[in-house]
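Here's what a typical entry looks like (Pseudouridine synthase):
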Amino acid sequence: MNYYKPITYIVQPEENGWILKSVLKEKLNISRRLLSRIKLTEKGVMVNGKREFINIRVCTGDLIEIHLEQETSQYIEPQNIPLNIIYEDDFLLIVNKQAGIVVHPTRGHYANTLANGVVYHWMQKNENYRFRPIHRLDEETSGVLAIAKNPYVHQQISEQMIHNQVKKEYVAILSGHLPDLEGTVNVRIDRDPEQRHLRIVTEHGYPAVTHYKVEEEYESASMVRLWLETGRTHQIRVHMKHLGCPLVGDKFYGKEYEGPAMDRQALHAEKLGFYHPNSREYVEYNAPLPEDMKSVVRHLKL
Protein backbone atom coordinates (compact mmCIF):
# COMPACT_ATOMS: atom_id res chain seq x y z
CA MET A 1 0.00 0.00 0.00
CA ASN A 2 1.44 3.37 -1.04
CA TYR A 3 0.95 6.64 0.82
CA TYR A 4 1.29 10.33 0.08
CA LYS A 5 3.77 12.45 1.98
CA PRO A 6 2.18 12.73 5.46
CA ILE A 7 0.48 15.82 6.82
CA THR A 8 2.48 16.78 9.92
CA TYR A 9 1.80 18.73 13.09
CA ILE A 10 3.87 19.47 16.21
CA VAL A 11 1.90 19.52 19.47
CA GLN A 12 2.17 22.98 21.05
CA PRO A 13 2.66 23.65 24.80
CA GLU A 14 -0.94 24.81 25.23
CA GLU A 15 -2.09 21.44 23.80
CA ASN A 16 -0.11 19.32 26.26
CA GLY A 17 -2.34 16.54 27.59
CA TRP A 18 -4.99 16.93 24.90
CA ILE A 19 -6.72 13.88 23.46
CA LEU A 20 -5.24 13.15 20.02
CA LYS A 21 -8.72 13.23 18.46
CA SER A 22 -9.20 16.81 19.72
CA VAL A 23 -5.93 17.93 18.11
CA LEU A 24 -6.93 16.32 14.80
CA LYS A 25 -10.32 18.03 14.80
CA GLU A 26 -9.53 21.42 16.33
CA LYS A 27 -5.99 22.08 15.07
CA LEU A 28 -5.88 20.16 11.79
CA ASN A 29 -9.61 20.60 11.07
CA ILE A 30 -9.96 17.01 9.87
CA SER A 31 -13.58 16.19 9.12
CA ARG A 32 -15.26 13.20 10.76
CA ARG A 33 -15.67 11.55 7.37
CA LEU A 34 -12.00 11.92 6.43
CA LEU A 35 -10.85 10.81 9.87
CA SER A 36 -12.92 7.62 9.58
CA ARG A 37 -11.25 6.97 6.24
CA ILE A 38 -7.75 7.56 7.64
CA LYS A 39 -8.34 5.22 10.59
CA LEU A 40 -9.01 2.33 8.22
CA THR A 41 -5.54 2.53 6.65
CA GLU A 42 -2.52 0.57 7.86
CA LYS A 43 -0.51 3.63 8.91
CA GLY A 44 -3.40 5.93 9.75
CA VAL A 45 -2.41 8.43 12.44
CA MET A 46 1.10 8.14 13.87
CA VAL A 47 2.62 9.90 16.88
CA ASN A 48 6.42 10.03 17.01
CA GLY A 49 6.60 7.34 14.33
CA LYS A 50 4.20 4.91 16.05
CA ARG A 51 0.67 4.01 14.93
CA GLU A 52 -1.70 5.21 17.65
CA PHE A 53 -5.39 5.17 18.53
CA ILE A 54 -6.98 8.61 18.47
CA ASN A 55 -8.06 8.47 22.14
CA ILE A 56 -4.51 8.71 23.57
CA ARG A 57 -3.19 11.87 25.18
CA VAL A 58 -0.39 13.81 23.49
CA CYS A 59 2.49 15.83 24.92
CA THR A 60 4.23 19.05 23.94
CA GLY A 61 6.58 18.45 21.00
CA ASP A 62 4.93 15.22 19.83
CA LEU A 63 5.07 14.77 16.05
CA ILE A 64 1.68 13.85 14.60
CA GLU A 65 1.62 12.39 11.09
CA ILE A 66 -1.51 11.83 9.01
CA HIS A 67 -1.06 9.17 6.32
CA LEU A 68 -3.35 9.09 3.29
CA GLU A 69 -3.40 6.29 0.72
CA GLN A 70 -2.38 7.16 -2.81
CA GLU A 71 -5.13 7.39 -5.42
CA THR A 72 -5.13 7.63 -9.19
CA SER A 73 -7.26 9.42 -11.77
CA GLN A 74 -7.91 6.10 -13.47
CA TYR A 75 -10.61 7.40 -15.83
CA ILE A 76 -8.59 10.37 -17.12
CA GLU A 77 -6.41 9.70 -20.15
CA PRO A 78 -2.90 11.20 -19.85
CA GLN A 79 -2.18 13.66 -22.70
CA ASN A 80 0.90 15.72 -23.38
CA ILE A 81 -0.74 19.13 -23.03
CA PRO A 82 1.59 22.02 -22.16
CA LEU A 83 1.11 23.35 -18.62
CA ASN A 84 2.14 26.71 -17.23
CA ILE A 85 3.07 25.65 -13.69
CA ILE A 86 3.30 28.45 -11.15
CA TYR A 87 4.09 26.28 -8.11
CA GLU A 88 4.14 22.64 -7.09
CA ASP A 89 4.92 20.72 -3.90
CA ASP A 90 3.83 17.41 -2.37
CA PHE A 91 0.39 18.80 -1.56
CA LEU A 92 -0.58 21.30 -4.26
CA LEU A 93 -0.22 22.06 -7.95
CA ILE A 94 -0.86 25.66 -9.00
CA VAL A 95 -1.17 26.37 -12.73
CA ASN A 96 -1.83 29.37 -14.93
CA LYS A 97 -4.66 27.94 -17.01
CA GLN A 98 -4.70 29.07 -20.61
CA ALA A 99 -7.97 30.24 -22.14
CA GLY A 100 -9.80 27.75 -24.36
CA ILE A 101 -9.29 24.64 -22.27
CA VAL A 102 -11.87 22.87 -20.10
CA VAL A 103 -10.70 22.07 -16.56
CA HIS A 104 -12.19 18.59 -16.11
CA PRO A 105 -13.48 15.93 -18.54
CA THR A 106 -17.24 16.13 -18.94
CA ARG A 107 -19.80 14.80 -21.37
CA GLY A 108 -18.50 15.93 -24.73
CA HIS A 109 -15.06 16.84 -23.34
CA TYR A 110 -13.37 13.54 -22.48
CA ALA A 111 -9.98 14.62 -23.82
CA ASN A 112 -7.86 17.74 -24.32
CA THR A 113 -8.75 19.08 -20.88
CA LEU A 114 -6.48 20.51 -18.20
CA ALA A 115 -6.99 17.29 -16.23
CA ASN A 116 -5.55 15.22 -19.09
CA GLY A 117 -2.44 17.40 -19.13
CA VAL A 118 -2.01 17.33 -15.35
CA VAL A 119 -2.32 13.54 -15.15
CA TYR A 120 0.31 13.25 -17.92
CA HIS A 121 2.59 15.65 -16.01
CA TRP A 122 2.34 13.51 -12.87
CA MET A 123 2.86 10.32 -14.87
CA GLN A 124 6.13 11.74 -16.26
CA LYS A 125 7.26 12.32 -12.66
CA ASN A 126 6.21 8.78 -11.71
CA GLU A 127 3.63 10.18 -9.29
CA ASN A 128 0.04 9.11 -8.71
CA TYR A 129 -2.64 11.56 -7.65
CA ARG A 130 -6.33 11.91 -8.19
CA PHE A 131 -7.16 15.09 -10.10
CA ARG A 132 -8.88 17.36 -7.54
CA PRO A 133 -9.35 20.97 -8.69
CA ILE A 134 -10.13 23.09 -5.65
CA HIS A 135 -12.16 25.51 -7.74
CA ARG A 136 -13.12 25.91 -11.39
CA LEU A 137 -12.54 28.43 -14.14
CA ASP A 138 -14.74 28.70 -17.24
CA GLU A 139 -13.30 27.25 -20.44
CA GLU A 140 -12.54 30.72 -21.84
CA THR A 141 -11.25 32.20 -18.57
CA SER A 142 -7.50 32.21 -17.98
CA GLY A 143 -5.50 32.42 -14.78
CA VAL A 144 -4.55 30.86 -11.46
CA LEU A 145 -6.06 27.46 -10.68
CA ALA A 146 -5.27 25.30 -7.63
CA ILE A 147 -5.30 21.49 -7.68
CA ALA A 148 -5.14 19.45 -4.47
CA LYS A 149 -3.01 16.32 -4.34
CA ASN A 150 -4.91 14.59 -1.56
CA PRO A 151 -8.39 14.73 0.04
CA TYR A 152 -7.14 16.52 3.17
CA VAL A 153 -5.73 19.43 1.18
CA HIS A 154 -8.93 19.65 -0.85
CA GLN A 155 -11.06 19.65 2.29
CA GLN A 156 -8.96 22.30 4.05
CA ILE A 157 -8.99 24.85 1.23
CA SER A 158 -12.65 24.16 0.51
CA GLU A 159 -13.38 24.99 4.16
CA GLN A 160 -11.45 28.23 3.78
CA MET A 161 -13.62 29.09 0.80
CA ILE A 162 -16.78 28.46 2.81
CA HIS A 163 -15.50 30.83 5.53
CA ASN A 164 -14.42 33.49 3.01
CA GLN A 165 -10.71 33.05 3.81
CA VAL A 166 -9.60 32.50 0.21
CA LYS A 167 -8.60 35.55 -1.81
CA LYS A 168 -9.74 35.31 -5.44
CA GLU A 169 -8.90 38.36 -7.52
CA TYR A 170 -9.80 38.77 -11.19
CA VAL A 171 -9.18 41.32 -13.93
CA ALA A 172 -11.82 41.93 -16.59
CA ILE A 173 -12.32 44.26 -19.55
CA LEU A 174 -15.91 45.48 -19.69
CA SER A 175 -18.02 47.08 -22.38
CA GLY A 176 -18.87 50.64 -21.34
CA HIS A 177 -18.47 52.36 -17.98
CA LEU A 178 -19.80 51.29 -14.59
CA PRO A 179 -21.98 53.75 -12.66
CA ASP A 180 -19.47 53.83 -9.76
CA LEU A 181 -15.68 53.49 -9.68
CA GLU A 182 -15.96 50.85 -6.96
CA GLY A 183 -18.74 48.92 -5.32
CA THR A 184 -20.35 45.58 -4.51
CA VAL A 185 -22.86 43.54 -6.45
CA ASN A 186 -25.01 41.46 -4.11
CA VAL A 187 -27.76 39.85 -6.19
CA ARG A 188 -28.78 36.21 -6.41
CA ILE A 189 -28.00 33.96 -9.37
CA ASP A 190 -29.60 30.78 -10.70
CA ARG A 191 -29.97 28.81 -13.93
CA ASP A 192 -31.89 30.35 -16.78
CA PRO A 193 -35.02 28.15 -16.97
CA GLU A 194 -35.11 28.48 -20.78
CA GLN A 195 -31.38 28.09 -21.49
CA ARG A 196 -30.04 25.77 -18.82
CA HIS A 197 -26.37 26.36 -19.62
CA LEU A 198 -26.75 30.07 -18.77
CA ARG A 199 -27.27 31.91 -15.49
CA ILE A 200 -29.55 34.84 -14.67
CA VAL A 201 -30.13 37.25 -11.81
CA THR A 202 -33.23 36.20 -9.87
CA GLU A 203 -34.48 36.88 -6.36
CA HIS A 204 -35.05 33.15 -5.89
CA GLY A 205 -31.47 32.20 -6.80
CA TYR A 206 -28.33 31.45 -4.78
CA PRO A 207 -26.46 34.23 -2.91
CA ALA A 208 -23.66 35.78 -4.97
CA VAL A 209 -21.38 38.67 -3.95
CA THR A 210 -18.81 40.39 -6.18
CA HIS A 211 -16.70 43.42 -5.22
CA TYR A 212 -15.18 45.58 -7.96
CA LYS A 213 -12.90 48.55 -8.50
CA VAL A 214 -12.36 50.32 -11.82
CA GLU A 215 -8.65 50.38 -12.75
CA GLU A 216 -8.83 52.28 -16.06
CA GLU A 217 -11.52 53.74 -18.28
CA TYR A 218 -11.31 54.01 -22.06
CA GLU A 219 -13.63 55.57 -24.60
CA SER A 220 -15.95 52.58 -24.82
CA ALA A 221 -14.63 50.12 -22.23
CA SER A 222 -13.19 49.72 -18.75
CA MET A 223 -10.59 47.57 -17.02
CA VAL A 224 -11.91 46.39 -13.67
CA ARG A 225 -10.46 44.43 -10.75
CA LEU A 226 -12.89 42.07 -9.00
CA TRP A 227 -12.94 40.08 -5.76
CA LEU A 228 -15.31 37.19 -5.13
CA GLU A 229 -16.98 36.28 -1.86
CA THR A 230 -18.90 33.45 -3.50
CA GLY A 231 -18.08 31.28 -6.48
CA ARG A 232 -21.25 30.81 -8.49
CA THR A 233 -21.06 29.63 -12.09
CA HIS A 234 -20.58 32.62 -14.44
CA GLN A 235 -20.85 34.95 -11.42
CA ILE A 236 -18.65 37.81 -12.66
CA ARG A 237 -20.10 37.62 -16.16
CA VAL A 238 -23.70 37.73 -14.91
CA HIS A 239 -23.05 40.44 -12.32
CA MET A 240 -21.31 42.73 -14.79
CA LYS A 241 -24.12 42.25 -17.30
CA HIS A 242 -26.54 43.11 -14.49
CA LEU A 243 -24.71 46.45 -14.12
CA GLY A 244 -25.03 47.07 -17.85
CA CYS A 245 -21.36 46.42 -18.65
CA PRO A 246 -20.87 42.82 -19.82
CA LEU A 247 -17.40 41.46 -20.48
CA VAL A 248 -15.77 42.20 -23.81
CA GLY A 249 -15.85 39.08 -25.99
CA ASP A 250 -18.49 37.30 -23.94
CA LYS A 251 -20.45 35.16 -26.41
CA PHE A 252 -23.36 34.52 -24.03
CA TYR A 253 -23.72 37.66 -21.95
CA GLY A 254 -21.93 40.28 -24.05
CA LYS A 255 -22.90 43.00 -26.49
CA GLU A 256 -21.30 44.99 -29.29
CA TYR A 257 -18.82 47.69 -28.29
CA GLU A 258 -16.46 50.03 -30.10
CA GLY A 259 -13.06 48.40 -29.80
CA PRO A 260 -10.81 45.53 -30.92
CA ALA A 261 -12.42 42.12 -31.13
CA MET A 262 -11.59 39.32 -28.69
CA ASP A 263 -12.51 35.70 -29.29
CA ARG A 264 -13.22 34.93 -25.63
CA GLN A 265 -14.55 36.77 -22.61
CA ALA A 266 -11.90 39.17 -21.30
CA LEU A 267 -11.60 37.62 -17.85
CA HIS A 268 -8.43 36.55 -16.07
CA ALA A 269 -7.96 35.04 -12.58
CA GLU A 270 -4.91 37.06 -11.59
CA LYS A 271 -4.45 36.17 -7.92
CA LEU A 272 -5.27 33.33 -5.52
CA GLY A 273 -4.40 33.34 -1.82
CA PHE A 274 -5.11 30.93 1.05
CA TYR A 275 -3.53 29.22 4.07
CA HIS A 276 -1.40 26.27 2.99
CA PRO A 277 -2.88 23.12 4.59
CA ASN A 278 0.53 21.72 5.58
CA SER A 279 2.64 24.76 6.53
CA ARG A 280 -0.47 26.68 7.68
CA GLU A 281 1.15 29.85 6.36
CA TYR A 282 -0.68 32.28 4.07
CA VAL A 283 0.44 31.85 0.45
CA GLU A 284 -0.47 33.82 -2.65
CA TYR A 285 -0.02 32.94 -6.32
CA ASN A 286 -0.19 35.31 -9.29
CA ALA A 287 -0.59 34.97 -13.06
CA PRO A 288 0.27 37.95 -15.30
CA LEU A 289 -2.33 39.37 -17.66
CA PRO A 290 -2.34 37.22 -20.84
CA GLU A 291 -1.22 38.63 -24.15
CA ASP A 292 -4.67 38.73 -25.77
CA MET A 293 -6.02 40.96 -23.00
CA LYS A 294 -2.89 43.14 -23.09
CA SER A 295 -3.43 43.58 -26.82
CA VAL A 296 -7.00 44.75 -26.29
CA VAL A 297 -5.84 47.25 -23.66
CA ARG A 298 -3.15 48.62 -25.99
CA HIS A 299 -5.73 49.21 -28.71
CA LEU A 300 -8.16 50.82 -26.29
CA LYS A 301 -5.49 53.30 -25.18
CA LEU A 302 -4.85 54.52 -28.75
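The chain has a mean pLDDT of 93.

More examples are in the samples folder.
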